[in-house]
Amino acid sequence: MMRSSSSRSAPLAHVREACLDAWALLVPVTCAGCGAPDRGLCDDCLGRLVRPAASDDDAHLVRWSDAGGTPGLAARRYDEFVGAVLLAYKEDARTGLVRPLAAALEPAFRSAVLEASRAMGGVSPEIATIPARRCAARDRGFHPVEQLVRRLGTRPSRPLRWARQPADQRDFGRAERLENLAGALVAARRLDGRRFLLVEDVVTTGATVGEAVRAMRDGGGLVVGVVALARVGP
């Protein structure tokens, strides 16, 4: 008699839980979302972060376009919960969170790739990320957004470099960010004829993305879309 998939998966779930319990004894952790003990991301928070795989409804995705008409797509709106998970991933080097974060990004990423490809007559865009600032790259030892893209099975392009290092802008408003970033990014090489889908973790004011779009355009390339895990505001 054949066993159902649910009956086969039940023992695996128990094994997984036992392994996580054992690991929590060796390396104590708390949930990045709610602070509950013994899990990097508890089941409740995982459910809040990742949309069910069976859902194919794009209505929940957040859409916008910048002043130049570049379309943007985010998996969700930014809130304190997703901010806490991203902070743990990026600043506390909890790289095990790359898997659920990539899963949360995936619906928007796949939709953005498909829409860009349709707009380009069936040709897929190159996937690009904004380079990490020198101090962040040194302190973290990894590029958070690149790791998300790689987790989704794509090797990102690196078409940009920093011409200068801007000031930390976490407490800046939009006007201050625009001034801080003006001319900070340049194309790493000529990008003539190349088309890119730009991936970010969070789009706040859009100043960093706007600077990246400008730099790629000045280098001869074109950003056909922006996709992010979360977007701040409307």
Supply the key terms.
234 residues, alpha/beta, Rossmann fold, 8 helices, globular, disordered N terminus
Architecture overview:
- The chain is α/β, with parallel strands linked by helices.
- It contains eight helices and seven strands.
- It has helices at residues 5-26, 43-49, 80-91, 98-119, 134-140, 144-151, 174-181, 207-218; strands at 62-65, 71-77, 126-129, 160-162, 185-187, 195-203, 222-231.
- The strands form two sheets. A five-stranded mixed beta sheet has the order 1-2-7-6-3, sandwiched between helices. A two-stranded antiparallel sheet has the order 4-5.
- Helix 4 crosses helix 6 (144-151).
- 31% of the residues are buried.
Encode the helix/strand succession as letters.
HHEEHHEHHEHEEHE
Q: What is the end-to-end distance?
A: 54 Å
Our count of domains comes out at 1
CATH architecture annotation: 3-Layer(aba) Sandwich
Low-pLDDT windows of residues? 1-7, 20-26
Overall geometry comes to globular
Multimeric organization:
single chain
Structural class: alpha/beta
Count of strand segments: 7
Please report the number of helical segments: 8
| Largest β-sheet summary | 5 strands, mixed
CATH hierarchy, class: Alpha Beta
Cα-atom Rg, whole angstroms? 19 Å
What is the typical, i.e. mean, pLDDT? 87
CATH fold-type name: Rossmann fold
Helix content: 40-55%
In short:
With 234 residues, this protein is an alpha/beta fold.
Task: Record the SSE blueprint.
Blueprint: H1 5-26, H2 43-49, E1 62-65, E2 71-77, H3 80-91, H4 98-119, E3 126-129, H5 134-140, H6 144-151, E4 160-162, H7 174-181, E5 185-187, E6 195-203, H8 207-218, E7 222-231
Helix pairs in contact: 4-6
